[in-house]
Automatic annotation (TrEMBL):
Pathway entry: Cofactor biosynthesis; thiamine diphosphate biosynthesis
Protein name: Thiamine pyrimidine synthase
Annotated PROSITE patterns: PROKAR_LIPOPROTEIN (PS51257)
InterPro entries: NMT1/THI5 (IPR027939), Solute-binding_3/MltF_N (IPR001638), SsuA/THI5 (IPR015168)
Signal peptide (residue range): 1-23
An annotated Gene Ontology molecular function: transferase activity
Organism whose genome encodes this protein: Actinomadura bangladeshensis
Length: 363
């Protein structure tokens, strides 16, 4: 039975909807599906579906959501900022987002908190085509920087990188290049001089033969990457639901680590357009590489323990400090204000070995 509906909002529509409070979507106030499962709306910040999110497909296809009595609807938005807006407004229950909108929102009283980690490290970075004369952040002044959307977290990071070096954050021209063929054409044609994207998106680009080199951004080492966030009041009221959501997702991560090829096939099953038109063997190889980039560091491989989603207080603290240094927020605040590990033990109450064994049976 299909328990997850994969929905994409076009960037322009999503931006307008965010401004209007997404009235058309209706309030996300809980409820049950026709077959009696608890319904959840989950927002993620991505311009399109890709193998980096194959773990979500696994959680549906393998029945992990259903086993937790959940009916999960996933909505895509162009940026983490817009994801945060949806959670704050109550239009979705949970948002998968990077730290910037949560930290900024905290200073404005939005009261979002993380209950499980998804990205184990800071995912945004700057890169340029191999052979480019751009060698440092300072060299970006006056240059064209490609981003998925001008309101994306990548765009925020690009401006922040300049600001941290004492440079004018408006001295670059942000060029929205979307995703897929549009993005590749912009890079290959020289429409942009540099890129401000994230881990899996870079892998997608490099899979197509585009060689890139990183631009170091001092101060971004060992930062918290982000994860699942809700309003604190909702976490208190819906604790059991969030535990079940986290557990179902964790199982999908463990399965994907054990058999990434099967995970990609699950994604194709739910979202066929992600398969593309190239030879299946080539597409599978490329998408497994993307998935492995996302799985790297999630600590679910054999011998790495069984604490998926646990956040490092030092990493969150460093991220709050980074946000302050970068000028994203006016002053630091206790890291514990925006995260809790209180649900992690319950989320991980399942047999990792059983999930891995089930993955091996698919090979």
């Amino acid at each position: 039975m299909r328990t997850i509906r994969l929905t994409r909002l076009a960037p322009a529509v999503a931006l307008a909807a965010a401004a209007l409070g997404l009235a058309a979507c209706g309030d996300s106030s809980g409820g049950t599906s026709p077959d009696g499962r608890d319904t959840i709306k989950l927002a993620i910040g991505s311009p399109s579906w890709n193998a980096g999110y194959a773990t979500l497909a696994v959680s549906e296809a393998r029945g992990y959501f259903a086993k937790e009595n959940l009916d999960v609807e996933v909505l895509l938005f162009p940026s983490g900022t817009q994801v945060a807006q949806q959670v704050i407004s109550g239009k979705v229950d949970v948002g998968l987002m990077t730290p910037e909108p949560v930290a900024i929102g905290h200073t404005k009283g939005t009261d979002l908190t993380y209950f499980a980690q998804y990205w184990t490290r800071w995912i945004y970075s700057l890169k340029v085509p191999e052979g480019s004369g751009i060698a440092s952040v300072a060299d970006l002044e006056g240059k064209r920087v490609g981003v998925t959307a001008v309101a994306s977290s990548g765009a925020t990071f690009a401006r922040t990188a300049l600001k941290m070096q004492g440079l004018d954050s408006n001295s670059i021209k942000l060029v929205p290049i979307g995703a897929g063929a549009e993005q590749l054409n912009a890079i290959k044609s020289g429409k942009v001089d540099a890129l401000a994207l994230w881990d899996t998106q870079y892998q997608i680009v490099e899979n197509k033969g585009v060689k890139l080199k990183p631009l170091p951004v001092p101060g971004t080492e060992n930062l918290f990457g982000g994860g699942f966030a809700v309003k604190k009041g909702d976490l208190k009221d819906e604790r059991d639901t969030m535990v079940r959501l986290g557990r179902a997702f964790a199982k999908g991560v463990v399965f994907s680590q054990a058999d990434p090829e099967a995970a990609v096939h699950d994604l194709w099953k739910l979202h066929p357009e992600t398969k593309g038109t190239a030879a299946e063997e080539q597409v599978l190889d490329e998408q497994v590489k993307v998935l492995k980039v996302r799985l790297d560091g999630m600590k679910v491989a054999p011998g790495e323990g069984d604490r998926w989603g646990e956040m490092d207080p030092a990493g969150v603290t460093a991220t709050v400090k980074f946000a302050t240094t970068a000028g994203l927020i006016d002053k630091e605040f206790p890291a514990a204000d925006i995260f809790t590990n209180d649900l992690i033990a319950e989320i991980n109450e399942f047999s990792y070995a059983e999930v891995r064994a089930a993955a091996k049976k698919t090979s």
